[in-house]
Amino acid sequence: MGFFDSDIVQQEAKQLFEDYQHLMQLGGNYGKFDREGKKLFIEQMESIMERYQVFMKRFELSEDFMAQMTMEQLKTQLGQFGVTPQQMFQQMHMTLERMKGEIGPDS
């Protein structure tokens, strides 16, 4: 069975994509959120980024040809912007840390 033939992989990919899309829609109103809303949004983004990293690591470690091709395509696409997958995740993390700093420390 191939990597993408797994019901678990398909369901996880679908859920991750849906969660990310939903959060991006909410993010359009980020500036209108109160402090607690911003904290919750950032926490949810961190959770999705962690899930995405784990999912991508599965691609990386898989010996399945299609999984390897998917990773190569991602690397090529990111490479067009001069970024590696690791750098992409580091940049996302830095952005979320900056967002945390903007809302201030917990009281």
Q: Report the end-to-end length measured between terminal Cα atoms.
A: 52 Å
**Beta-strand segment tally:** 0
Number of domains: 1
Low-confidence stretches: none
Binned strand content: under 5%
What letter string, H or E per element, gives the SSE order? HHHH
Overall pLDDT confidence = 90
Determine the number of helices (DSSP H or I, runs of at least 4 residues). 4
Overall, the morphology is globular
What is the structural class?
mainly alpha
Radius of gyration: 16 Å
Report the sheet with the most strands, covering strand number, pairing sense and barrel closure. none
Instruction: Kindly state the percentage of residues in helix.
Output: over 70%
Oligomer: single chain
Commentary on this structure:
77% of the residues lie in helices and 0% in strands. It has helices spanning 7-27, 35-61, 65-79, 85-103. Helix 2 (35-61) packs across helix 3 and helix 2 runs antiparallel to helix 4 (85-103).
What are the defining features of this structure?
4 helices; 77% helix; mainly alpha; 107 residues
Task: Provide the fold topology.
Blueprint (H helix, E strand, L loop, with lengths): L6 H21 L7 H27 L3 H15 L5 H19 L4
Short description, anyone?
The chain is mainly alpha-helical and 107 residues long. The chain has helices at 7-27, 35-61, 65-79, 85-103.
